[in-house]
């Protein structure tokens, strides 16, 4: 008997989708924060452990959804934002993709947070606080982005919070470090930007936001993207394909799933539209399950995220498999 699997929806994906026009922000992040402060303050105060509080708010100051991602190990924490109920932060809006974005929070030094937000190649990407359309951003503290009709507020918590929240909304907003943007999508701009040093022993005055290049499809010529770091072997029934990937490919994020926007795709409906993302972050290569319906299995255990620091076999639904082979396997 065939094994039954759930799938994201019963309708086949279309090659072309008519998109709604992006929603222009009507309120500043400061205005929205102040409007929701009375409701938000006790929510924030309830999470005193190191982690990240992710809050989606409407521009009228109403909180639509929130989730806290606790850091339980040195590997940090991951969360998926999207329309699917399996996501850590679920946004009930038809223009939001089922799996829209991936966020990771980790510790950076003592008492500092590192927040990485990646758009999962959605049709409606996010915009930064200064209005730039961006597919990936790295922050050294609080991060605020606009997604369609939502404003996303990402607040480090516990010892990672850059400042103590005050009793008033105005004082709390003023206590947040100034956000300074560095654009790594334009190399010339990177060379011109100078990071301002932080005085030793003083509260951080600036949060640096680094805009990173968007994900791209695998290049036809192996190795065209720079230094090769490994090979992905995808197998299904009697078919196997191999792709050599570079550090540049993985830094931008590579999507695996059945949707057309994925860099590596499978046809089975047991595979979620965006099932897995491979990501190079802080020197480690990660395989992150993007809140898939049928899961990803390693050594008989369902995983949410795992470091690809050795040759590994990942089992996907419907008999599919993915083997990661590092370019230089260290001696055992």
From TrEMBL:
Domain (FHA): residue spans on this chain: 79-126, 254-303
Signal peptide from the UniProt entry: none
Classification via SUPFAM superfamilies: SMAD/FHA domain
Taxonomy, superkingdom: Bacteria
Pfam families attached to this UniProt entry: FHA
Protein name: FHA domain-containing protein
Organism: Nannocystis exedens
């Amino acid at each position: 008997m065939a094994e039954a699997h759930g799938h994201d929806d019963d309708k086949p994906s279309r090659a072309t989708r008519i998109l709604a026009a992006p929603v222009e922000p009507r309120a500043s992040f400061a205005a929205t924060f102040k409007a929701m402060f009375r409701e938000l303050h006790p929510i924030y105060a309830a999470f005193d452990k190191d982690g990240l509080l992710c809050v989606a708010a409407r521009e009228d100051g109403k909180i639509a959804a929130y989730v806290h991602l606790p850091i339980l190990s040195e590997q940090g924490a991951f969360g998926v934002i999207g329309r699917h109920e399996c996501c850590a932060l679920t946004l009930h809006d038809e223009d939001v993709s089922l799996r829209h974005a991936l966020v990771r929070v980790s510790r950076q030094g003592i008492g500092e947070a590192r927040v990485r937000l990646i758009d999962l190649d959605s049709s409606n990407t996010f915009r930064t606080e200064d209005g730039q359309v961006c597919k990936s951003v790295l922050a050294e503290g609080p991060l605020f982005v606009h997604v369609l009709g939502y404003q996303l507020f990402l607040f480090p918590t516990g010892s990672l919070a850059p400042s103590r929240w005050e009793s008033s909304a105005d004082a709390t907003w003023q206590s947040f470090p100034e956000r300074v943007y560095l654009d790594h999508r334009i190399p010339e701009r990177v060379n011109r930007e100078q990071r301002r040093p932080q005085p030793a022993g003083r509260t951080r005055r600036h949060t640096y936001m680094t805009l990173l290049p968007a994900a791209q499809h695998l290049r036809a010529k192996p190795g065209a993207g720079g230094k090769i770091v490994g090979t992905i072997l995808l197998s299904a029934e009697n078919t196997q394909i191999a792709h050599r990937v570079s550090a540049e490919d993985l830094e931008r994020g590579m999507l695996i799933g059945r949707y057309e926007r994925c860099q590596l795709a499978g046809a089975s409906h047991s595979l979620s539209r965006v099932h897995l993302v491979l990501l190079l972050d802080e020197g480690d290569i990660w395989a992150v399950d993007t809140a898939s319906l049928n899961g990803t299995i390693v050594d008989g255990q369902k995983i949410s995220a795992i470091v690809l620091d050795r040759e590994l076999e990942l089992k996907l639904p419907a008999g599919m498999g993915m083997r990661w082979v590092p370019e230089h396997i260290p001696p055992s």
